[in-house]
What does this fold into?
Amino acid sequence: MVDLRPVCQEDCQILFIWANDEVTRANSINTSVITWNTHMQWFREKMDSLKSCLYIITDNDKPVGQIRLDIVDEGSAEISLSVAPQHRGKGYAALGISLALQKVMRDGFCYRVVAKVKAGNKASVKSFINAGFKYSGDKIVQNTHCHIFNYIMQKIN
Ligand SMILES: CC(C)(COP(=O)(O)OP(=O)(O)OC[C@H]1O[C@@H](n2cnc3c(N)ncnc32)[C@H](O)[C@@H]1OP(=O)(O)O)[C@@H](O)C(=O)NCCC(=O)NCCS
It folds into this structure.
């Protein structure tokens, strides 16, 4: 069963390995390789921040990917994710995104989510569309051509 769990201290290393995966770097706005020290500092800041939610996507409790939401504006968060290379092509991303949306909506973390997908990243585009995101146009983000997708949450009464 696919599920999400919050990231814990012990996940620091696996997140480092996943972050430096070649395809993940190529699909990121900043394509530079991440050093361990930079990662450790980033990880500590994210874990301590009330403006970030980090989750591990699991299948039968086995980690298969990660999802992060960072508040960028009042009520709005930016989402990013990756699936471990050996687990790609099985639809984990769309499932993980849907689960993350449910969690942040339930927790009142945000009500609007934006995804910035580097042009050409077809698996990511499809995953966000499959999870209910709507394409809202293209934008140049730090000199990089991106497709922008939005998800606006419906209030549950
Ligand atoms: C993007 C990523 C998260 C997608 O994860 P995934 O769960 O493995 O996605 P899948 O391979 O199952 O693909 C999802 C959909 O895209 C489609 N797809 C995949 N590659 C495609 C391609 N080259 N062209 C067209 N469609 C493609 C799949 O057929 C699938 O469609 P379906 O749901 O209709 O069957 C994963 O590839 C990844 O971690 N990439 C590196 C990091 C990254 O790019 N993160 C996103 C940054 S915005």
